[in-house]
Amino acid sequence: MKKVLFLFTCLSLLWCGPAFAQLAEGGSGAEIAIPDIPGTSEAGTIQAPAIPDLNGPGIPDIFPAQPDTPHLPTQAPGASEAPAGWADADPLAEFERFITGSLPEDRLTQISRYGSEFFRTAPSTFAPDEAAPVRPDYVIGPGDQLRIDVWGMVEGSWTVTVSRDGTITIPRVGVIGVAGLDFEQLQDVLDEQFSRFYSNYEMSVTLGALKNIKVYVVGNARRPGGYTISSLSTLVNALLVSGGPNESGSMRSVQVKRGGKVVTDFDLYDLLMKGDKTKDIRLMPEDVIFIPNVGPQVAVTGNVRRPAIYEMKKPLSVDGLIEMAGGMTSTGFEGRIQLMRVVDRQYRTMLEGDLKALSRTSLKGTTLQDGDYLRLFSVVERQSVVRVSGPVAKPGEFAINGGVNKVSDVIHWAGGLLYYAADEAEITRVEVTDSGPKTTRIKVSLGAALKGDPAHNIPLQMNDYIFVRAVPDWQLYKQVAVYGEVTYPGVYTIGPGERLSSLIERAGGFSLNAYTRGAIFTRESVKKAQQQQIDEMVQRFEKDLLAVGLNELSSALTPDETRMLQMEAQQKTRLLEALRNTKATGRVTTMIAAPSVLKGSAYDIELEHGDKLYVPRNPSTVQVIGAVLNPSSFVYDKNLSYKQYILMAGGYSREASPERVYVLKADGTAMRTKESARATTPWVKEFNQDIEWNLIEPGDAIVVPQKIESYRGLRQTRDYVDIIYKMAVTALSIHNITN
Prior knowledge:
A hairpin with a 2-residue loop joins β20 and β21 (436-445).
């Protein structure tokens, strides 16, 4: 339990301590913000974010429940809507599986039967357009609605429905049999009956609501059964409502049987390939649509426009199959075709051929057989290109005529040289020899090459690599920033070799209120290096936690000890989150002084792009943080020692480690007090500068560390707590100076 309390105390110091709460400006203390230097892009943070609940709302189910397969009815009243489950794909036919398994891995896709997609995509309706005019050969039957209009010497209008016995009844005219008449004959029959009672009149007959008819789809249909459909429906309408042929059904011989006789034999390929519907007849009541077994099938894949499995209606040649598949693509290679064939249902063989000379190959006179599989290939890639990189307008690859195009040609194609391009370019050339590739590097003057000098404007070869160099250390603008107590703060461009003293001079020097001892100088390259070290430390800590946690839990003897170790693991996890959110500041501790003092000294460092200098105002406070009763800021008094400031903060707490007290100076350096130096460095007795060890200046922070004992499983944790503690203290010091 003592170990748990220790970790809880450490983490409380990080997130809940009064000193660190100052960083959050009165916030909850869940975040320690390292204030950004004015003008920088982001503030570094040490934060312990909440772990999301993986089972909470908003987390999608990785494997959503699949809908139940709906029951498909045998009836489709009105045939107006797509049946449920329409989009369900057909199971792969045996030949489809065979072809798919024969494809090379780089082209592994499912090859389907030609025409299957026509029936897989559900249309908005299966019914014909009943608003379309009725054709003269439409046969009248029970259920049809007729509208009869008469005008002249007699006027009248009647809307009647053909009864089950095939008749209609008109007042004063009587019962008229109309079933079996086509629409063209209907008006003649009605006119004949009306003329028995009336004369000198005109008549118009139109159809209103049309009857439904019952047809049957049998054989190898996807959804065989009886269907009630519109009397305007054709064979294709019925095939759509029944899902078309299944994986075993023929696409090329769909029959309509009427009265025991075949009235049409419809080849769906005529519709799909040519748009020909001449055999798509209108259905009659009790028609039977029969889909026989699929005929011989062949497959073609590769560089054809419609790779698919095709059904043969008659013997087909290699050329005929390619033509049926839409012909070769523009990238198809005529120099090679491959035919795979199953022989005697025992083994598979392979034939090679040349489309440009079929008569001279093993495919001469070849007629395709059931199960044949034809593969076509793409053209051979023979790129004759060179590559250009560097400061040109359009770097990249350029096609050349080897031995003809020269350096100047390619530079021109690349949009010319950019203004920071150097005169010298390097051409790397790789030649293939019997002993292996041979690399040659050629240096040319671009200026001379563009002027046509044959010594530099040399002919290029395939795969040459031209590297155009940029002028050394090129950068259009190198910028640094200076803010705070200088005469002219802002962003300045710098030249090669420019130093810190020059920047301060250009900024007009320091103002009267400048506190140069607390100046903050940051560098992006240092920030990246610091962050990399932090990230590596996080990885090491994570490994330590895993190793120690597993060992300790496996060695726990009692339930209480197990619970205690689990609590420790939770605290360590929070500590790990704090480490993960620790961001480097990039601060470089150096002396900042007037240019006259800096010049010629080791501190007059050369500036880099992205450097930032912040000069604060003279501070008037000193901070006491850590294991004291009342961490706080106090007004600076030059007559007070660090011990007196600690007494003003209430003195040491029980967890304090007085022998480890140190002072974090405003300039970023850390100084031990006399006692702590003596306790850890025996040679401190050689120094008699007690005043320096005890000197406190404005902006300083007196840090009182907490005792950290070595418990089982906490040896690594102690080091990481100490690291986070010091980072947080540094962040607090920067915050105090900049605010």
